[in-house]
TrEMBL record:
UniProt KW keywords: DNA-binding, Transcription, Transcription regulation
Coiled coil: none
SUPFAM superfamilies attached to this UniProt entry: GntR ligand-binding domain-like (SSF48008), Winged helix' DNA-binding domain (SSF46785)
Tree of life domain: Bacteria
InterPro entries: GntR_C, TF_FadR/GntR_C, Tscrpt_reg_HTH_GntR, WH-like_DNA-bd_sf, WH_DNA-bd_sf
Native source organism of the sequence: Streptomyces clavifer
CDD domains: WHTH_GntR (cd07377)
Name under which the protein is recorded: DNA-binding FadR family transcriptional regulator
Domain HTH gntR-type: start-end pairs: 4-72
Example GO molecular function: DNA binding
Length: 229
């Protein structure tokens, strides 16, 4: 196994520093000169480490102001998922199908928890989105933005920001490779019916029914991606 470079070692130590000092997004980090002294490292290695961490949203470099803890968003994760899926798909491998199966496992495993007590306002949002889908279906296609909004709103009551980011990362990844997935194969009326059933299962506080409805929804997606292998 190759030994980490000086810059990679500094990356690790900056992460440790953020944890040790209990810093969060937007908090200032030591200056470049202070990091050089703290880690007994050269300017080039420190800058290389900071640039790598900036690419991962771990740090944010504001020219003229300093270096701060970054947003820690999952956008690099989403981009990695999308690129991996796209490359494998174009090589005839089941990249998109694998991506969708992971998302299905996550959503089917969580939808039951939503039925334990979804707030009335969240349920109203879901039903409103289903109504929007019905209107869109009359034009021949349910919008991906509406579909995406439904799935994100479904788990809002769990108040889990990481979950929201992970689910949105899957959607962003699929959107980046959507030209390889012909959503027109899905009958709009079926799409509406499936989302309506998910919403009503949640409204009825029926966890088993909600899981079945979610599985049924993904059955159609898997069928459309089945040609991948």
């Amino acid at each position: 196994m190759a030994r980490p470079t000086m810059a990679q070692d500094i990356e690790r130590r900056i992460r440790e520093l953020i944890l040790e000092r209990r810093l969060g997004p937007g908090d200032p980090l030591p200056t470049e000169a202070e990091l050089m002294e703290l880690f007994d490292a050269g300017r080039v290695s420190v800058r290389e480490a900071l640039k790598a961490l900036q690419a991962m949203n771990v740090v944010e470099i504001r020219r003229g102001f300093g270096t701060f803890v970054g947003s820690l968003s999952l956008s690099p994760f989403a981009e990695g998922l999308a690129f991996r899926a796209a490359v494998r798909h174009r090589q005839g491998e089941p990249g998109l199908l694998e991506l969708m199966k992971v998302r299905e496992a996550l959503e089917a495993g969580l939808v039951g928890a939503v039925t334990a007590g979804i707030p009335a306002e969240d349920l109203a949002v879901l039903r409103e989105l289903v109504a929007t889908m019905e209107s869109e279906a009359r034009t021949g296609r349910v919008g991906r933005a509406t579909d995406r909004a439904f799935h994100l709103a479904l788990y809002a009551s769990l108040d889990n920001h990481l979950l929201s980011e992970v689910l949105d990362a899957f959607w962003a990844a699929m959107d980046q490779v959507r030209e390889d997935l012909d959503d027109g194969h899905q009958d709009p009326a079926t799409t509406v019916a499936q989302h309506h059933e998910i919403a009503e299962a949640v409204a009825a506080a029926d966890g088993a029914r909600a899981v079945r409805a979610m599985r049924t929804h993904f059955d159609g997606v898997r069928a459309r991606l089945g040609a991948e292998g």
